[in-house]
Amino acid sequence: MVIFGTALLAACYLAGAFIGELLAILIGVQANVGGVGIAMMLLIAAQHYLRKRGLLAPETEKGITFWAMLYIPVVVAMAATQNVVVAVKGGPIALLSAAGAFALSALVISAINRIIHRAHIANEPLPPVDLADEEALVSQDSVAATHSK
Amino acid sequence: MLEIIQKLIAENPLVTAFAFIGIVIWISNQMARHVFHGHVAGSAIAVLSGLALAYWGGLVTG
Predict the structure, then answer these.
(1) Which of A5, A31, B9, B55 could form a disulfide with A64 if both were Cys (CB 3.0 to 4.6 A apart)?
(2) Given pLDDT bands bounded at 50, 70 and 90, which one contains residue B58?
(3) Is any Cβ of chain A less than 8 angstroms from the Cβ of B2?
(4) Please, are residues B16 and B9 in contact by the beta-carbon 8 Å criterion?
(5) Chain-chain contact of A21 with B22 (C-beta, under 8 angstroms)
């Protein structure tokens, strides 16, 4: 049943938000500390655990996939409900923090991508030589040679 | 502790509903399989238990 995946997602979100509230009380902050991040880690762990046990039917997983695909539209909708006028008028802190977060994410994500890419290259055997490609190259070379003559 | 849970549920009604409905449907499916031995559909039990819960909620809240 698809709803089980969505229920798992919702339960992980609530558990993460709960832990975030507890952390906030421990630290003494008037906000939720990392609730969504903890929820994401819980969901990944739960998915891994259930899949290993064979309890995660493909249909159940669709209940998570649907919301994963709606992630960007939700972010767009959330962005559209922000009070941007106040944020921009309130001074450069909001814009600076946005630019800082963007720059940091870009750097970290590109670094992670490069690491993953390298790991893949290291694990892969050498690609087989593609004869068609080579013939194309040779013919291009000969065409270039005839043109230069 | 309870206050935090109450606050979270009040702040995230939709998410809580998804989780709760998932649990209700899971229990209904288990009942259909083990109590009624497949003679009653799990979905039917789930809808009826939804109505029963609504009745209970109505009694409690007036």
Answers:
(1) A5
(2) very high
(3) no
(4) yes
(5) no
d(CA B35, CA B42) in angstroms, rounded, equals 11
Q: How is residue B10 written in tokens?
A: 């009040």
ipTM above 0.85, yes or no: no
The CB-side HSE value for A80 (13 A sphere, CA atoms) comes to 6
CA atoms within 13 Å, Cβ hemisphere of A18: 15
Domain segments of chain A as ranges: 1-81, 92-149
Residue of A38, A71, A16 whose CA lies nearest to B19: A16
Where do the domains of chain B lie? 2-61
For B16, which residue in chain A has the nearest alpha carbon?
Answer: A10
Q: Are A65 and A47 in contact (CB under 8 A)?
A: no
For A26-80, what is each residue's pLDDT tens digit?
Answer: 988 888 888 889 999 999 999 999 999 988 888 899 999 999 899 899 889 988 9
Do residues A7 and B16 lie in contact, with contact meaning Cβ atoms separated by under 8 Å?
no
Pick B18's closest partner by Cβ from A1, A7, A21.
Answer: A7
